[in-house]
Amino acid sequence: xxxxxxxxxxxKDLKKFYNDGEVKALDGxxxxxxxxxxxxxxxxxxxxxxxxxxxxxxxERPTGGSITFEGNDIMAPSTDINKLRQKMGMVFQHFNLFxxxxxxxxxxxxxxxxxxxxxxxxxxxxxxxxxxxGLADRxxxxxxxxxxxxxxRIAIVRALAMDPExxxxxxxxxxxxxxMVGEVLDVMKxxxxxxxxxxxxxxxxxxxxxxxTRVIFMDCGRIxxxxxxxxxxxxxxxxxxKSFLQKVL
Amino acid sequence: xxxxxxxxAPEPALLNKTKKSNLILVFGILSVLFSIIxxxxxxxxxxxxxxxxxxxxxxxxxxxxxxxxxxxxxSIIASxxxxxxxxxxxxxxxxxxxxxxxxxxxxxxxxxxNFISEKRYMYILKGLGVTFxxxxxxxLLGIALGVVVALVRSSYDTLKEEMRGGFGKGLLWxxxxxxxxxxxxxxxxxxxxxxxxxxxxxxxxxxNKILVAVLAFGINSGAYVAEIIRGxxxxxxxGQFEAxxxxxxxxxxxxxxxxxPQAFKAVLPALANEFIVLIKETSVSGYVGLQELxxxxxxxRSRTYSAFMPLIAVAIIYLVIVMFFSxxxxxxxxxxxxxxx
Lengths: 249, 341
What we know:
A: 25% strand; B: mainly alpha; MetI-like fold; 2 domains
């Protein structure tokens, strides 16, 4: 479905070395992310999937290769990375809500300071987003008063408040109690249905299968196999993918 | 997905409790205010403390209780002073006996000699004023210096990988090294030596001792404040920084909106403690002839040749000041702890 959609992020031969090349977190990753795609990245721990995701908005500075976002080389000295990051929402494993601000302020601070939205507009938007994830009544609460699942839902809508083109999810459910995973995945599913372009590092194979349009399997800093969820889960080609799936499914 | 997390309606008992703690606070304040009138102060203090013992709850009650205790101490001292000196037309015979005995006791003679005659208490009062003045401005200078140094050092740590080199990076490197030297030198030499160098070497032509003391203690305190604040910045989870950056905030705005407010809150008690330490440290200003509290007591000693009274008086004044500010800091700490996490 996505082959003819336009490419938003294009990654070429991405490399990230630590200790002068002793540790290769990313060893030549090449892929394209197209508009409307839900790309799920899976793989054993230490395979470089988080590093790959964090490179996309330059939280991790690659050692080599190139990343272009909507045609702009994000590593070029002339690129304003802060402008580009506004179009790439990110959700973290540990939520990273701002504990000194209320939920509402967490969601309005970036739109107000960066997009110049007025307080009323920003709050109206934040409240409608909170409505969408069923947390409108918690607007005045502080993050410490929320459960893990609620925090992660807030983290998602905080990123959405900036109207991003792409959403990056870095193991969004890994730090949650099992009974709270569902509510966060529901929000992500709705987001995917609404047509948001998503790149998602996760261990939730059910989510990958149901919502993903493409699954990338990474190991040792390389993309080992890349295919539709159906093919990946029912007809894996690579031995390492097969043994990985045996362990996690 | 619909949680009902509304707060439970406040129970009547809870309401009663806040009312009571307000009452304790009011009685505590009244006990201090009325401590000039011998019995009234103690009556209010006893009321406040009785209420507190019956239901100990909340910050206001704690403050009220401590004020009541202060009120009792002041009341006792004030009553004793009034008993001995309040002018009466016809004092009862037992009181005049006490009064005439007291006036010839060695304690009173010593006291009068050290503090009353030739208005020697002015040395203490003026000295106290100077001590507060120096401490206050030194703290301001120290915090300003400390914040700048802490920002330079932590910025260098986080930005050295991100920056692409060139002039900006070189400048930051230079300032980082400069701050490193500042911290090493200031923390590696005694404050008395720094004070004397500033007075006798750098400001040899000027005689503004207060300015010299403010500079010396401010520069000295800045080094310690810098490390306190840097510790606070580093104690903030790295994820907070990443969250700020991923929303599109640049380095400076992430620091200003996300990191500094949290770090400041974390280090507020430590900063307040630095202020308390500084009050005591200024006692060495006498080395350059500044007449602050300690020097004031010492001058009285050199006039009267009795060391006990003036030095003990100075010690008690420092102790009371430090106890008072430590109490404020403990209140602050508890409030910060209550407010979140």
